[in-house]
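Below is our example:

___
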Amino acid sequence: MRGLIPLLPGLAILGVFFLVPMLELVRMSVLRHDPVQIFTAQLTLANYRRIFSDSFYITMVVTSLQVGLATTLAALLVGYPLAYYLTTIRGWERTLISAACLLPIFVTVVVGTLGWFIMFLPFGVTQRMLHALGLVDGPLRLLNTLEGLVAAMVFLEAPYAILILASSIQNVGQDKVNAARVLGASTAQIFRKIMIPLTMPAIVSSAVLVFSLSISSYLVPALITGGTLRLLPLAIFTYTTDVINWPFASALAVVLLVLVLGVTYTVTAVTNRLTARGKWQVV
């Protein structure tokens, strides 16, 4: 028990500022909506039945998952090679590439997203470049699309993955790589059997962070898609501020929370099994 005493302030803060709001959110999600009083104390599962019986909201859940998973996969595919390259260079080149990779963090989300909005405009910079290369002929339609949203999300979220991955990759001992080369392992084998398993905790951490940020983002989808794409964060905001249906907005928020927790647990469990963590040295 004495060992728990130093943890009490942190546990108290966690309980007050996280558990209490989450419990209140779950309670609100099972209350009945009232147009006059906003909600009544009558308990009901009508909000959840409405979500899972209406194809409109099921499509919304599926689309939100697609955005989160596609952004996470693309951020890892872009971020891992960049993070690995950063650990192999020194001097001004490392400073320059580090600054370029971290630039999206230093500019605000609004500024970064507005830049992508301008690039995606019909007959904008992107279309003129692709037209000059002969890759497109006609109006380029990236705004209000899933592909355009994922591209903007990757730009904004990939730096977090790069930071986590680079710190893990640089801690992989060069002696392990050299020993594998001496034993005749190819570059692909070293990457698959040494680098990936030893940096798997960072890969999982990056995936969880990017997925959580992208699936719950409101501002970027609002600017890039104009609200035309059916996504849970946009619906939660609408039902909270415009429709004033707090119980249904809370039910949508609980569904979003369960999605994040479910995907996080699944990714962690699957990667633990595939990489046999516990048998490897965890960096």
